Structure formats: structure tokens, C-alpha cells
Amino acid sequence: MSLTLNPRFPLLPSISMAPRLLLLPFLLLFLLSSITTASSPNKKKLKEKLSHLHFYFHDVVGGRNATAVPVTKPAGVGQPFSAFGVITIMDDLLTEGPDPKSEQVGRAQGMYTGAAQEELGFLMAMNLAFTAGKYNGSVLSVLGRNPPLHPVREMPIVGGSGLFRFARGYALARTIWFNFTTGDAIVEYDVHVMHY
Ligand SMILES: *[C@@H]1O[C@H](CO)[C@@H](O)[C@H](O)[C@H]1NC(C)=O
Ligand SMILES: *[C@@H]1O[C@H](CO)[C@@H](O)[C@H](O)[C@H]1NC(C)=O
Ligand SMILES: *[C@@H]1O[C@H](CO)[C@@H](O)[C@H](O)[C@H]1NC(C)=O
Question: What global pTM score does this model have?
């Protein structure tokens, strides 16, 4: 047996090379697309869900164990005794139940600023940093208006991290206890949040 080209198909090698060359760009495209899918492995699993969180917020303004501290003085304009201009920095405890000694679920870290001249009204800018359960280490960011003398205040959830990536939603706040002497308050929070 000698190695000779099949005389009946002398052009065979060049014909079969052409489709292979044509396939090359498609092969590259396929490889590239599988690389991009590989870099976002959760793409297929991503499904937005609605979660409801319920907890209590403890604003301790008075005493040595205060967790909310005013860092500016009132601007001195607006209604008498207006809190307009007062910025309070907080690291308030969040608990499962209304009792401050009930299980801790997180901290509300950030600030509230007297930003209304006609009534008591705060700009809230805070992170709800969770420290228990499956949301331990995850954070929700709240930015909204809080007139604390209203029975129910609604504040937007503008984002989050950890399990709350891409979060959006709203928080409803109801004061359930207030000490007029110290200014301490316990506020019930109902948070409804869309996330993945
Ligand atoms: C501050 O907290 C400590 C420890 O929980 C407690 O023993 C103390 O009574 C508190 N002080 C005030 C003024 O609330
Ligand atoms: C929350 O996570 C931190 C850091 O991973 C861990 O040290 C802590 O024990 C966790 N807390 C709870 C209540 O699971
Ligand atoms: C409010 O706080 C003051 C000072 O700590 C305390 O004497 C008083 O009992 C508190 N009032 C209520 C309703 O808890």
C-alpha cells in the first residue's frame, strides 16, 4: 500500500478545510459566550423575592448608656423648641421583641437630622445592620422622612448588601413607647423588601 491521493477526489482536502475555517468564528463566539455566562453563575437562579422583617428599634438618648447622641445644636429658627438643625448620630439596638433585653437582631447605625421647621420632622439616613439569623452580616440602607409624632411613618429602603443586594422596599415605623423626660423611644419596624 502506498500513500497516494485518491485520484477521484483530488480536491477533497481543500474542500473540507473551508467549512472548518468557517466554523472557527462560531466556535470562538460559543467559547466567549460560555465564558461570560460562567462569570455570573447565579444568572439562572436569580429570582426576586419579597421579605418581611419585623423588629423593634431602641432609641436611647438619655443617660450614660445613650446610643443616640446629638452632635449639633438647634439652628434656632423655625418653631420654638424646634429640632431643626440638630444632627443625632445613632448606633441603636434592634431587637426581636419590644423588650430591650429580648434577642438582639441588629443595630441601626447612621443619623437623623431635624429637617422640618413647621413640625418635628427628621431626615433619616441609616443602615440596618443585621447580626442574627440568616441575615447576619447583611445590611439595608434607609433614606427617608420621619415625622416621629405621626402614628405611622413610611421610609424608603434604597439599597442593601449581602443577602439584600439590589434591595428596594419600604419601612413602616410606629412608636410604641416614649419617655418625655429622657426622649427615649421604642419604635416598631415593619420592613417589606424586594431582593434576590
Ligand atoms: C448602663 O448599662 C449597664 C449595663 O447594661 C447597666 O448596668 C447600667 O445600669 C446602665 N446605666 C444607665 C444609666 O442606664
Ligand atoms: C454573626 O456573624 C458573625 C461573623 O460571621 C459571627 O461572629 C456571629 O457569631 C454571628 N452571630 C450570630 C448570632 O449568628
Ligand atoms: C422616663 O425616664 C425617667 C428618667 O430616667 C424615669 O424616672 C421615668 O420613670 C421614665 N418614665 C417612663 C414612663 O418610663
Answer: 0.79
